[in-house]
Amino acid sequence: MKKDVVDYIEQNRAAVNKTWDALHAIPEIGFQETKTSAYLAEELRNSGFKVTEGLAGTGVLGTLDSGKPGSNIGLRADMDALVHTNAAGESVMVHSCGHDANCTKVLWAAKAIAAKFPPTSGKFVVLFQPAEETILGAKKIIETGAVSDLEYFVSTHLRAMDELPLGLVTPAILHGASAIMEMSITGKNAHGARPHQGVNAVEAGVGIIQAVQALHFNPSVPHSAKVTKFHSGTNPFNVIPSSVSLVFDLRAQTNEVMAQLKDRITNVACAVGQAYGAQVTTKLHGAVPAATKCQELIDIAAEAIKDALGEKAVAPTLPTPGGEDFHEYAVAMPGLKSTVIGVGADLTPGLHQADMKFAPEALLNGAKALAMTIGRLFEKCTK
């Protein structure tokens, strides 16, 4: 199995790069990935997969079903791009997070499995998921029930140079939990000469920020609460402002500490606002859970990386404060065994940067590691 799937990908080196070229040329934002999904659906059909389109709007699911009882194994990539402003001040879509690379790796791993190592029991599914960047895509796919019968689920992502250089592949990116908390602070306008007649929402906002920074959580778990927006409207300079919009970016390496962050920050903000005579409301936007670590799958993936690329290619598990909606599946599907395989790519200057670039060899490395991981899972599940 090792030689067959790895050789298949190596022999198709030029075609792998051509796939990335095609996907890179059609960046599309979340839930609008129509060209991307059509391209991937056709490629799956041509490789022998039964294809379902239109999941959660633009999602694509390819299935190889053995027709025999057994474990159901899934492989997933995200499809969407991001919007950036170019030098001319125009909004343009760019694959600055490398989802075109993720799709390329997953597609060619799937092609290798279909050609050289199809399942003899259970089934193998390939999911191209929309709208990861909106943090809604995974939830929408979960609502369809299309992957609810999976036992194992594997995903992948390129990593920035400072996390993982080219040639190294980690069996698990351990993403942290993240959330955006928006606060609305309502006070009362007053003339600057008569401050006692008003409630200064700016002062209340500053008090909230100071109070949040004074909160303490388990120091052994990395976490942060950073102010990313503070806006008080367009009042004249001599008018005490009655409203403030305040935003915190929250991150924690465990879901438990994230729950504490949300709860205590909400409580302290309301208490401080009340002390100033202001009203405070909070709202969460774009929250994703932390990774659910599966040591069994990490060990299998590590052996697969070694088989595909050599022992020196195996990197340790990689904790990162970045978020990923793939971990919604493990939360929604208790018992699901999942991991995100991270691929070193000499990626600079960083993810979500409009001028992001990486070494094309990472596409081959990632596809080989993924194909071997799926193959090893087949072998384990048929023993």
List the SSEs and their pairings.
Elements: H1 2-11, H2 13-24, H3 34-46, E1 50-55, E2 59-65, E3 72-78, E4 82-85, E5 91-94, H4 99-116, E6 123-129, H5 137-144, E7 152-160, E8 169-170, E9 173-175, E10 177-186, E11 190-191, H6 201-213, E12 223-231, E13 239-240, E14 243-252, H7 255-276, E15 279-288, H8 295-309, E16 318-320, H9 328-332, E17 337-347, H10 361-381
Parallel strand pairs: 3-6, 3-7, 7-17, 9-16
Antiparallel strand pairs: 1-2, 2-6, 4-5, 8-17, 10-14, 10-15, 11-13, 12-14
Helix pairs in contact: 1-4, 1-10, 2-4, 4-10, 6-7, 8-10
Structural overview:
With 383 residues, the protein is of the alpha/beta class. 36% of the residues lie in helices and 28% in strands. The strands form 5 sheets. Strands 1-2-6-3-7-17-8 form a 7-stranded mixed sheet.
Number of helices: 10
What overall form do the CA principal axes indicate?
elongated
Give a short account of the largest sheet.
7 strands, mixed
Q: Work out the number of β strands.
A: 17
| Rg result | 24 Å
Look at the structure and give the mean pLDDT.
97
Instruction: State the share of residues found in helices, binned by percent.
Output: 25-40%
**Helix/sheet category:** alpha/beta
What's the SSE pattern? HHHEEEEEHEHEEEEEHEEEHEHEHEH
β-strand amount: 25-35%
Cα(first) to Cα(last) distance is: 15 Å
Strand order in the sheet with the most strands: 1-2-6-3-7-17-8
List the uncertain runs: none
Short summary of the structure?
With 383 residues, the chain is an alpha/beta fold.
